[in-house]
């Protein structure tokens, strides 16, 4: 829920407010308003506002030329039009590259059809109480009227909202509600806000967001209908022990301190957010790469293994079991086991052992025992089965899962440990563009851990489009694919209810992708939920498209991506962007481990 | 009365249960295997529904299940094979498998087919007790199909009480922390666990690691009987199933 505080003017009051986590602040450029900023409003005041707080200028029936001049002078990010402006007037402002909010005054007779002409020309609507003047009345309207609003444009709720409305706000549900606009309800005198009250309001309203998070796991491990812990009784005690401990450990001060220290000094975080100029030019937009390829061991996997090895250590475990597909998770696990002096057994499909030889050598050098899984297709799925069997036989071991799959609490635990990715993206984008939210976050999905990490802090930020990219192998309908969401349906694998590729008898299908890290027949339950609710868009990319995208990145930016990440990059070709869009691609790993495949597949190497 | 209850009422001791995968060693061997087992005096049979990813099974059962699948076995075909089974087989019959196969088949259709064929109970290795109780228990009971539950040495007393309350027929007492097919070693700790389960208000059979007459008798001394899977499959593989059963009884 975004919060906009409107009607500011007083310099020292603004300074105090800036310490609060506000999203928008509004300045009224309408001379008849009691909160009019005045003809001599000092531009230095708006300059002191941190970039991540968006500055809104409020105008009533003003000439576009004057609006744009003032927008420039006061560095306004948004123009809010509060008068009788037509859709064309709104469009004119929007065409200059500034965001447009159009305010409408509502009562029982409001004709919502009127809004249709405005959808394209406005970024957000603001619904206020009907009054005789153009300004706000300080009165609330009946929010039930908004049930009639079926449009696509998200809106701010405005009109007399005060500290006493916290419960009403929490109770009000509308899929397009984007934010709250507050003003006179928090004032000591016109244009002077009561900072303590605003702070209290922010805290109360945002608490709701934490508890009502639509995409958070529940206590039984479900994301919507997906997740759970569908495990044999033989594993129950092991899984219960972990479930009862993981949150206590992760939330402890000691863990947070140890984890942060390892991330900073061993993993190499924060990883850079690189704006890639040539790629940006190619797609006519602003493309940033989150450089997980620059972590120790060369992929995001290490964020998770560092976290889980600490959890294992706190739980007193000394023997670590892992499974691996591409070998990145195996290497990351072997690495942290070496660091902590723990026994490490890594199960890996016999076929993967063959095609990921450098990673196998790395794991062995790090002291891990690599055990080939010789059942099934001899890939990740089969390695996972073997690892689970080992855990059944050795209940005192710690099973260190490498993705957001498996029985609860693994999907949640791994998501939390990978969420460092989106946390850093937010901080870095705020510095870079003034806004923590990009327009798009794009990530590849096999099991889905790098995507879960890149999406995590944006799950409730509905203005950020989440794009998950699956591997379609030789094509989604070729029979040689790993595009689970695209061709799968509801099923159960490795302890989770999720989307799954299986035949009509419920036998799990062998997936295929050129990328060993993506050929998994299931997907994490969080992703199944994001797909079902439409929160994330799922695209799929073929082997060839991924190879092509890898070449483009290598030769235009000097970065050789992992084959997994190349899938995320290839999705850019399927999308269209506006020139001012901010697009973040999670570059989950580097391509060294895939050189053999690249050499075989790319003719001119 | 459910045939499982009848069995435990009539014969409280030394109950021998045998497991084999449907359609194994050859696709149409399901019913002939049942006839052999009944003729040899086996008390109870668990027919495995082959699954591509059997998490709780050891390599022998996994390889057998794969062969059976490769030969064209499916749950649908299994029910066709069992259509007339009650004309010749009077032993209680249990189907044992994994939840994904049943879910995909459709839980209602599965239970109806179980009832039609005269299946007395099922063991669904990865269907959690909580999900069963909340969503499916009423349906199972309406079709008279028992959901046989497992306990393991790691099962806490608290959970044991929950399982005891929900269980029907008998408890499948897993002998040790391992997948199927391991050896059963004797230990004081294990015997304590056996005795604890035996004190419960429901019969129990010990499974995992039972492979010959000696281990069968040892296990049976702590419970109502035992279950043999891997060792029987090995006997099927070597064509000595009949002799193996003779050696047990």
UniProtKB/TrEMBL annotation, chain A:
Query: Per the database record, which ranges form the Tryptophan synthase beta chain-like PALP domain?
Result: 268-589
**Domain N-(5'phosphoribosyl) anthranilate isomerase (PRAI) residues, every copy:** 4-203
Is Amino-acid biosynthesis included in the keywords of this UniProt record? yes
Question: Modified residue N6-(pyridoxal phosphate)lysine is at which positions?
Answer: 301
- Record's keyword terms, sorted: Amino-acid biosynthesis, Aromatic amino acid biosynthesis, Isomerase, Lyase, Pyridoxal phosphate, Tryptophan biosynthesis
Cofactor dependence: pyridoxal 5'-phosphate
Q: GO MF terms on file?
A: phosphoribosylanthranilate isomerase activity; tryptophan synthase activity
Q: Which reaction does it catalyse?
A: (1S,2R)-1-C-(indol-3-yl)glycerol 3-phosphate + L-serine = D-glyceraldehyde 3-phosphate + L-tryptophan + H2O; N-(5-phospho-beta-D-ribosyl)anthranilate = 1-(2-carboxyphenylamino)-1-deoxy-D-ribulose 5-phosphate
Q: Does the keyword Hydrolase apply?
A: no
List the SUPFAM superfamilies hit by this protein, alphabetically: Ribulose-phoshate binding barrel (SSF51366), Tryptophan synthase beta subunit-like PLP-dependent enzymes (SSF53686)
In what pathway does it function? Amino-acid biosynthesis; L-tryptophan biosynthesis; L-tryptophan from chorismate: step 3/5; Amino-acid biosynthesis; L-tryptophan biosynthesis; L-tryptophan from chorismate: step 5/5
What Enzyme Commission number(s) appear in the record?
5.3.1.24, 4.2.1.20
Coiled-coil stretches are none
**What are its GO cellular component terms?**
cytoplasm
**Which PANTHER family does this entry report, sorted A to Z?**
TRYPTOPHAN SYNTHASE, TRYPTOPHAN SYNTHASE-RELATED
Self-association and partners: Tetramer of two alpha and two beta chains.
- Protein function: The beta subunit is responsible for the synthesis of L-tryptophan from indole and L-serine.
| Family of this protein | Belongs to the TrpF family. Belongs to the TrpB family.
What's this protein's name? Multifunctional fusion protein
- Point out the gene that encodes the protein: trpB
TrEMBL record, chain B:
Q: Which reaction does it catalyse?
A: (1S,2R)-1-C-(indol-3-yl)glycerol 3-phosphate + L-serine = D-glyceraldehyde 3-phosphate + L-tryptophan + H2O
List, in alphabetical order, the Gene Ontology terms for molecular function in this entry.
tryptophan synthase activity
GO cellular component terms attached to this protein's record: cytosol
Please give the PROSITE patterns that the UniProt record associates with this protein.
TRP_SYNTHASE_ALPHA (PS00167)
Q: Where is the active site?
A: 46, 57
Recite the UniProt keywords alphabetically: Amino-acid biosynthesis, Aromatic amino acid biosynthesis, Lyase, Tryptophan biosynthesis
Role according to the record: The alpha subunit is responsible for the aldol cleavage of indoleglycerol phosphate to indole and glyceraldehyde 3-phosphate.
Name of this chain's protein: Tryptophan synthase alpha chain
- What organism does the UniProt record list as the source? Labilibaculum antarcticum
Q: Which gene encodes it?
A: trpA
């Amino acid at each position: 829920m975004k919060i906009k505080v409107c009607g500011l003017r007083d310099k020292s009051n603004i300074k105090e407010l800036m310490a609060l986590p506000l999203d928008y602040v509004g300045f009224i450029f309408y001379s008849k308003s009691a909160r009019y900023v005045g003809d001599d409003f000092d531009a230095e005041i708006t300059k002191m506002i941190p970039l991540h707080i968006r500055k809104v200028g409020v105008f009533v029936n003003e000439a576009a030329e004057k609006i744009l001049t003032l927008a420039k002078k006061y560095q306004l990010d948004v123009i809010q039009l509060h008068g009788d402006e037509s859709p064309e007037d709104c469009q004119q402002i929007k065409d200059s590259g500034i965001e447009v909010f159009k305010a409408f005054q509502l009562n029982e007779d409001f004709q919502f059809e009127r809004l249709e002409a405005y959808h394209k020309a406005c970024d957000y609507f603001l619904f206020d109480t009907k009054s005789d003047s153009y300004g706000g009345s300080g009165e609330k309207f009946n929010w039930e009227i908004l049930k009639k609003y079926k449009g696509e444009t998200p809106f701010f709720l405005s009109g007399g909202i005060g500290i006493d409305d916290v419960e009403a706000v929490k109770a009000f549900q509308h899929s397009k509600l984007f934010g709250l606009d507050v003003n006179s309800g928090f004032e000591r005198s016109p244009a002077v806000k009561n900072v303590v009250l605003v702070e209290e309001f922010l805290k109360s309203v945002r608490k709701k967001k934490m508890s009502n998070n639509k995409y958070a796991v529940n206590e039984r491990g479900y994301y919507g209908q997906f997740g759970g812990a569908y495990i044999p009784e033989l594993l129950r005690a092991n899984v219960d022990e972990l479930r009862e401990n993981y949150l206590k450990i992760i939330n402890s001060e000691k863990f947070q301190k140890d984890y942060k220290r390892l991330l900073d000094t061993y993993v190499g975080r924060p990883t850079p957010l690189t704006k890639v100029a040539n790629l940006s030019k190619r797609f006519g937009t602003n493309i940033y790469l989150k450089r997980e390829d620059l972590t120790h061991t060369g992929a995001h996997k290490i964020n998770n293994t560092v976290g889980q090895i600490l959890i294992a250590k706190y739980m007193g475990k000394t023997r670590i079991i892992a499974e691996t597909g591409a070998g990145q998770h195996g290497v990351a696990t072997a690495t942290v086991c070496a660091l902590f002096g723990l026994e490490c057994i890594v199960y890996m499909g016999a076929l993967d052992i063959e095609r990921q030889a450098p990673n196998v050598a790395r794991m062995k050098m790090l002291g891990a025992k690599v055990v080939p899984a010789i059942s099934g297709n001899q890939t990740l799925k089969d390695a996972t089965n073997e690892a689970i069997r080992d855990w059944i036989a050795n209940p005192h071991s710690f099973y260190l899962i490498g993705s957001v799959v498996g029985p609860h609490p693994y999907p949640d635990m791994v998501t939390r440990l990978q969420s460092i990715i989106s946390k850093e993206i937010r901080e870095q984008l705020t510095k870079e563009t003034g806004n923590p939210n990009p327009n798009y976050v794009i990530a590849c999905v096999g099991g889905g851990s790098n995507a879960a990490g890149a999406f995590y802090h944006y799950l409730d930020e509905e203005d950020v489009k989440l794009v998950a990219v699956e591997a379609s192998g030789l094509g989604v309908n070729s029979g040689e694919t790993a595009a689970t969401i695209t061709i799968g349906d509801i099923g159960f694998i490795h302890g989770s209810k999720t989307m799954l590729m299986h035949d009509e008898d419920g036998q799990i299908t062998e997936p295929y992708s050129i990328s060993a890290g993506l050929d998994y027949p299931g997907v994490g339950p969080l992703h199944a939920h994001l797909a079902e609710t439409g929160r994330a868009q799922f695209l799929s990319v073929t082997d060839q498209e991924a190879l092509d995208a890898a070449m483009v990145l290598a030769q235009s930016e000097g970065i050789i991506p992992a084959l997994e990440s190349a899938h995320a990059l290839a999705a850019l070709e399927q999308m269209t962007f506006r020139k001012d869009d901010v697009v973040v691609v999670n570059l989950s790993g580097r391509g060294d481990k895939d050189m053999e495949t690249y050499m075989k597949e790319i003719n001119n190497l | 009365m459910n045939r499982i209850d009848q069995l435990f009422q009539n014969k409280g001791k030394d109950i021998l249960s045998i497991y084999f995968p449907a359609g194994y060693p050859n696709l149409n061997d399901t019913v002939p295997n049942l006839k052999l087992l009944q003729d040899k005096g086996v008390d109870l049979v668990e027919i495995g529904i082959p699954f591509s990813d059997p998490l709780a099974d050891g390599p022998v059962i996994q390889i057998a299940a794969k062969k059976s699948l490769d030969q064209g076995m499916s749950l649908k075909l299994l029910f066709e094979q069992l259509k007339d089974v009650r004309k010749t087989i009077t032993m209680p019959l249990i189907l044992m498998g994994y939840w994904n196969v049943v879910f995909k088949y459709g839980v209602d259709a599965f239970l109806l087919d179980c009832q039609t064929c005269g299946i007395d109970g099922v063991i669904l290795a990865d269907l959690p007790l909580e999900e069963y109780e909340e969503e499916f228990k009423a349906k199972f009971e309406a079709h008279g199909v028992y959901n046989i539950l497992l306990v393991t040495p790691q099962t806490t007393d608290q959970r044991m009480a929950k399982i005891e309350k929900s269980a029907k027929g008998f408890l499948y007492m897993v002998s040790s922390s391992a997948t199927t097919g391991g050896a059963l070693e004797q230990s004081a700790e294990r015997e304590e666990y056996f005795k604890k389960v035996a004190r419960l208000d429901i019969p129990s059979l010990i499974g995992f690691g039972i492979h010959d007459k000696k281990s069968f008798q040892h296990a049976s001394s702590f419970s109502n009987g035992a279950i043999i899977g891997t060792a029987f499959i090995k006997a099927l593989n070597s064509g000595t199933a009949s002799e193996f059963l003779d050696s047990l009884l």
